[in-house]
Amino acid sequence: MKSRFIVIGAGTLGLATAESLLRHGAEVTVLERGSVGREASWAGGGILSPLCLWDYPDEVNRLALRGMVLFGAFAGELYQATGVDPEYQRSGMLVLPPSDVQAAQKWCTAHGVSMEVQGDRMLLPDIAQVRNPRLMQALRARVGQLGGRIVEQCEVKQIVEEAGRVRQLLTTQGSYSADGYIVTAGAWSKVLLGKHALHADIKPIRGQMLLFKFDAPPLPHIVLQKDVYLIPRRDGHLLVGSTLEDAGFDKSTTGEARTMLLQRAIALLPVLRDLPVIQHWAGLRPGSPGNIPTIGRHPHLPNLYINSGHFRYGVTMSPASVELLMNVINGTPQPFDVSPYLWH
């Protein structure tokens, strides 16, 4: 008999997990409390790299670098199968001062990451981007093609355990049961799990973005200065981000963030002074200590799994995170030490 899985949360991690399970022959139902991919996955900028890799611990970079290596093929297969182009492209990222060029060079050399130093600027030519809403469309289409079921507006209210296993989920659309249950609910994961969360310390961190439109891409690369970035899309859209705000589950946009992002963006690209902001939005990232996600099996409930808490890098890490989780489920060897991500 086929294994039956329920995936809770239809963002990038949820749909990528579902897609992999389906390819491995499982039956999959995805439950989504709102609409598919409309939370952090939709709101993010789609830079496929930690902003300054050399500033992050090995636990973050190990997973991010693996995801970066796998992403081109992942996006290409989705495009080929569905006809929906996630717009994966190696646009490169230009890092402007202030930054520690020597430390960055040393790290990049040690980790095989290409870098070109241009005076006090650094270009990382291999950094890629993806267009998040298009990625979500492609993933949704692929899950449907493979026979997966997605139930929207279906919030999980209770995880019912019996004899040391999850027996069923009580939701706003009735009860659901399966052989295995995977939590990929992003910023909502800890709340959803309640007492079962244990040390999976995941909380919402708000990020606000601005959007502009040009006739053609105004920049050849992603541009990063400290914590603000400009992301040029193929069709002339330009994203400006982002804030990091501990505001609970409040997705409001604020005038303060708009002003700050606008001032910083104009300083980098003065032509923006004369252009209107065509959209301003906020999303809630699944914040976690040290940006380190939780991936694996629950220590006390063997049919409950998690793939969540990726903070700013869920899209970047998604192919690698799914690979790690599938290895746990299938009992196959891991590509590297996964102890930092275990649920405990």
Automatic annotation (TrEMBL):
A GO term, aspect molecular function: glycine oxidase activity
FAD dependent oxidoreductase domain sequence ranges: 5-325
InterPro entries: FAD-dep_OxRdtase, FAD/NAD-bd_sf
Known EC number: 1.4.3.19
Keywords in alphabetical order: Oxidoreductase
GO cellular component terms, A-Z: cytoplasm
Protein's UniProt keywords contain Protein biosynthesis: no
Keyword field contains Iron-sulfur: no
One family name in Pfam for this protein: DAO
Protein's UniProt name: Glycine oxidase
